[in-house]
Amino acid sequence: MTILTKDGDAAQMDSGTTRPKMNALGIDLGGTKLAAAIVCDGKLVTEIKKVPTPKGADKIIESVIGLIADFQKDHLIAGVGIATAGVVNVETGEVIGSTGNLPGWEGTQIKKIVEQKTMLPTHAENDANAAAYAEVHAAGLGDKKAVVTITLGTGIGGGLVMDGKLYRGQHWAGGEVGHLKISMDNKRLCTCGRWDCWEAYGSGSGFLRTSKEVIATIKPEQSNLANKLPHLTNEIVGEAADKGDPVAHKIIEIWHEHVATGLVSLAHALDPYCFFITGGMEKFVNFETMRELFIDRSLPIIGQNVKILPATLGTSAGMIGAASLVVDSMVNR
Ligand SMILES: [Zn+2]
After folding, report:
1. What distance in angstroms lies between residue 196's CA and the mean position of ligand 1's atoms?
2. What is the pLDDT of residues 213-232, one digit of tens each?
3. How far away, in angstroms, is 195 Cα from ligand 1 center?
4. Distance 114 CA to ligand 1 centre (A)
5. What is the CATH number of domain 12-134+315-331?
6. Does domain 142-311 sit in CATH 3.30.420.40?
7. Could you tell me the distance, in angstroms and rounded to a whole number, from the CA of residue 61 to the centre of ligand 1?
């Protein structure tokens, strides 16, 4: 097939790789906003445009089509990659499992609808998977047996890349690592309705629950945080830690143990080259402490070798990954 670049020329193949340099639109579809930018060769080449995510599948599709048309005014695009919350059947492009953040989204034939309306090749992918794909290739780790990208946000997302390819599992739910069970105590209910998932402890909302539990047991003279309990946020705890508050430090220490527990389980199943940590909670991670906890709890061959690293692409990873996936699907078809 002939693939057009923004200049209308046939695509140029990168020397040494199989990915041609062509423009694809990457769209990140989250619970609160839709973000999109044009991506070429794994890099953003335009500003990111954002619109609030409307309510309901029909309205969301309308916004997606609107964003595509908007970019097409000034750019020739070869395909559209959509990173969406929820479980996606990548072959049919249907959202087969949704999250509470996108009510009514489950069952949407996102790929089919966008292809019909725009005539552009489209790839739909779970957002954590798309982000993982982007991070691994940005780091030049496509030759590693396994790399695991963990998104520590409101929940916990995961993406498994093996030999440079996404591992999606038999039912497209591979990498749903937030629901690894990390305790048998039935202490915390997860958003999925089950007890003691990793997400209920290691995510941003898990951090806040830990904070409230710890602060409820202290006296006001021990920490100023006691007075802030009714309106507590993770940022307040983080700021208190920066000022040396011992209770805030204790909370962060407990949270590191929670995060490390999930990493240890995953590492023993997959023996990855490394973990990339990303998401809004990444700024709370002390990588040295995390590594020490990880080594303490791991078999020596895992503990000594598996790296834990900050991811590099930030919030644009989903867009970049989705756009790269549509390009790669065209080339490898
Ligand atoms: Zn769960």
Report:
1. 7
2. 999 999 999 999 999 999 99
3. 7
4. 31
5. 3.30.420.40
6. yes
7. 28
Would you say the CATH fold of 142-311 matches that of 12-134+315-331? yes
What pairing do the DSSP bridges indicate for beta strands 94-97 and 87-89? antiparallel
CA of 245 relative to ligand 1 center, distance in Å: 31
Six-digit token string for 116:
């019909």
100 or 202: whose pLDDT is higher?
Answer: 202
> Whole-angstrom Cα distance, residue 260 to residue 245?
23
How far does the centroid of ligand 1 lie from the alpha carbon of residue 177, in Å?
9
pTM for this predicted structure? 0.90
8 Å CB contact between 181 and 154: no
CA-wise closest residue to 26 among 4, 48, 7: 48
Alpha carbon of 132 to ligand 1 centroid (Å) = 20
Give dist(CA 180, CA 266) in Å, integer.
9
Q: For residues 180 and 202, what is the distance between their CA atoms, to the nearest angstrom? A: 11
Which H helix or E strand runs over 216? Answer: none
Cα–Cα dist 226/273, whole Å: 42
If you measure from the C-alpha of residue 193 to the centroid of ligand 1, how many angstroms do you get, rounded to a whole number? 6
Half-sphere exposure of 55 (CA within 13 A, CB side): 0
Q: In the chain, where are the structural domains located? A: 12-134+315-331, 142-311
Spacing, Cα 199 to ligand 1 middle (Å) = 6
